[in-house]
Design brief:
- It contains four helices and no strands.
- By secondary structure, it is mainly α.
- It has a single domain, classed as Metal-sensitive repressor, helix protomer (Methane Monooxygenase Hydroxylase, Chain G, domain 1), CATH 1.20.58.1000.
- Helix 2 packs antiparallel against helix 3 and helix 3 packs antiparallel against helix 4.
Length: 99
């Protein structure tokens, strides 16, 4: 599979899944804005670092959910369709996430 094919692929998400993902991203976006405000208000470094850690945990949680959904849908469908390259793609994604 070429990089061109990867960037042009689409995924239909059920409304519940999409809403859950977007809600998580909206919370993370709010946390980022909060950190920006903390910096602008000259807040104590440890307080800011604590909030950054919370954002990282929220992003990791988002990634776990998205990866799980990806495996259960996209990867399974690709393998059923005979596209075993999906396993290599999945391994590459997992390697990137674990850096």
């Amino acid at each position: 599979m070429t990089e061109e094919n990867i960037c042009c692929r689409h995924k239909f998400r059920e409304e519940k899944e999409e809403r859950n993902l977007l809600n998580r991203l909206n919370r993370i976006e709010g946390q980022i804005r909060g950190i920006k405000t903390m910096v602008q208000e000259d807040r104590y470094c440890v307080d800011i670092l604590t909030q950054v850690s919370a954002v990282q945990a929220a992003l990791n949680s988002f990634n776990k959910l998205l990866l799980s959904n990806h495996i259960k849908t996209c990867v399974v469908e690709d393998i059923k369709a005979g596209n075993e390259e999906a396993v290599d793609e999945l391994c590459g994604v997992i390697q990137k996430l674990m850096k």
